Amino acid sequence: MRITEHPILSFKQGRRISFKLDGKTLPGCEGQTVAAALHAAGVSTYRKSPQLQRPRGFFCAIGKCSSCLMTVDGVPNVRVCITPLQEGMEVQSTPGKGCLPDEDPVPAWPWPEHYADRILETEVAIVGAGPAGLSAAVETTGLGAETIIIDENDRIGGQLIKQTHMFFGSKKQHAKVRGIDIAPLLLDQIEGSKARIMLGATVVGFYDDKVLAIVRGGEFFGLRAKKIIMASGASENMLAFQNCDLPGVYGAGAVQTLMNVYGIIPGNRVLMVGAGNIGLIVSYQLLQAGVEVAEVIEAAPRIGGYQVHAAKIRRAGVPISTGHTIEKALGTEKVEGAVVARVDESWDLIPGTQRELEVETICLAVGLSPTVELLFQAGCQSWYVPELGGHVVAHDENLETTVRGVYVTGDASGIEEASTAMLEGRLAGLCAAESLGKKAASGKREEIIDQIRELRAGPFGEKARRGKEKMSRETWSHVQQKR
Ligand SMILES: Cc1cc2nc3c(=O)[nH]c(=O)nc-3n(C[C@H](O)[C@H](O)[C@H](O)COP(=O)(O)OP(=O)(O)OC[C@H]3O[C@@H](n4cnc5c(N)ncnc54)[C@H](O)[C@@H]3O)c2cc1C
Ligand code: FES
Asked: Would you say the CB of residue 182 lies under 6 angstroms from ligand 2?
């Protein structure tokens, strides 16, 4: 299951360690997550569902879907896809029931006085150390604002850490630089500043007075910030079809994480569902890792991603079938095949067109949804805007939400690309710092807004442009109705 040769990446194995799965000793490496180590050891089923005893594996690999819950060192319901593996860890596939501790349960807000030492203070808190969060920190720290960045991963970069392809766009947005090389460039601009980066820390609650509740390594504490920037990214969409919950049905980002971060292939033969940029890019990366891509299917009548990506995988002999969907996954314990079929212009399946494919993995690249639950807790106004990926939080041109002092940026503000996420991050950071009284160079804000407009001006930015306009219209008419 390990990738031995790769045209771009070289995989350095961490120190060899061992851990236990249901009492059986398995090998692993330092630097892996528990899920990656299980996959490397050939284990793709992590537990059974409590009611129907259906097998469960992982789906998103970024901590957002809860498909991978296991009991780790006696703690039930741990997301093993973002839990770093440690020597001697005891992992169990039996689903546990969570329980709250007897003593000292978290009290209702406002927290009592003896909690005072559990609340840190900062000028700016940034949730998410992806391209948007890091870019926001470049601006806040550049203007001298005390900043804390929180991310639940154990490394910075968000989705960039698995993007081996070179970026498009202009030089200002790191065009021709590989995604994996961008986060260190952003970090260089933050290092030595007033920034603190808290990794392996999950923000689990948004309280009044701009207090974030954070869990890190079994500890629970609060962080009060004058300004909060939410750069929490997006989660992968699921597609409903028969057996879609079988281990072996993975999100495209999860496949990328396994291959490009941990050097492990998801399976030997893959069906890709979705021919947008992500589906096409990940198909090419699968080929680079030595995996056979049986077919790329797409329900729309035409390919959604760049033709240059489509041409590359076609040249490698991979068929791309538009007007097709998946009807069901085959297999009982894990994926052993798939049934695909043609669809009509309403995307209804055309009976009699079904055919079977023998595959070990079904990779879904069918879109992303903004991660905005914490902003809902904060009381931000939200709208459903399909062009931006679903439920989005209302924000003005400075990316400030309807809760003053709370900003949203990057994929969390509407699904676009890393290039836009970086610019939006800079805009939110700059505006948050300015609202604290810090002085930015004149014209800088307008310059960033112009660059964002430029990115959205092309045919691939059209959808986001329409979405942002719709969101502004909804917000404006809501404000007028309230007056
Ligand atoms: C397969 C693939 C290929 C792509 N290719 C390109 C491309 O070629 N060019 C391009 O411009 N874009 C590309 N993109 C899109 C790009 O990756 C995203 O638009 C970009 O990463 C969004 O940045 P972000 O900072 O908003 O979110 P993310 O990169 O997702 O970062 C969000 C971070 O927030 C953290 N987080 C979320 N919730 C919490 C919480 N409660 N507590 C703590 N931390 C939290 C997450 O762990 C994550 O690290 C691609 C995406 C994918 C999946
Ligand atoms: S939360 Fe672990 S796979 Fe989604």
From this structure: no
The bound ligand whose nearest atom lies closest to the alpha carbon of 200 is 1
Pocket test for ligand 2, best of 59, 154, 246 (most atoms within 8 A of CB): 59
One fold for 118-235+369-482 and 249-367: yes
The Å distance, Cα 261 to ligand 1 centre, comes to 15
The superfamily CATH assigns to domain 118-235+369-482 is FAD/NAD(P)-binding domain (3.50.50.60)
Say if residue 285's pLDDT is above 80.
Answer: yes
> Do residues 280 and 296 make contact, with C-beta atoms less than 8 angstroms apart?
yes
- The dotted CATH code for 16-92 is 3.10.20.440
Q: What is the pLDDT of residues 264-278, one digit of tens each?
A: 999 999 999 999 999
Q: Which atom, in ligand 1's list, is nearest to the CA of 214?
A: 42
pTM of the predicted structure, to 2 decimals: 0.94
Q: Are 390 and 238 in contact (CB under 8 A)?
A: no
Q: CATH homologous superfamily for 249-367? A: FAD/NAD(P)-binding domain (3.50.50.60)
The alpha carbon of 247 and the centre of ligand 2 are apart by a number of angstroms equal to: 12
Q: How confident is the model at residue 74 (pLDDT cuts 50, 70, 90)?
A: confident
- Output the CA torsion 304→305→308→314 (10° steps): -70
Burial class of residue 188 in the structure, from the number of CB atoms within 10 Å of its CB (0-12 exposed, 13-18 middle, 19+ buried)? exposed
Decide: 353 and 342 in contact? Cβ < 8 Å: yes
Among 38, 39, 58, the mutation site with the greatest number of ligand 2 atoms within 8 A of its Cβ is 58
Domain spans in the chain, listed from the N-terminal domain onward: 16-92, 118-235+369-482, 249-367
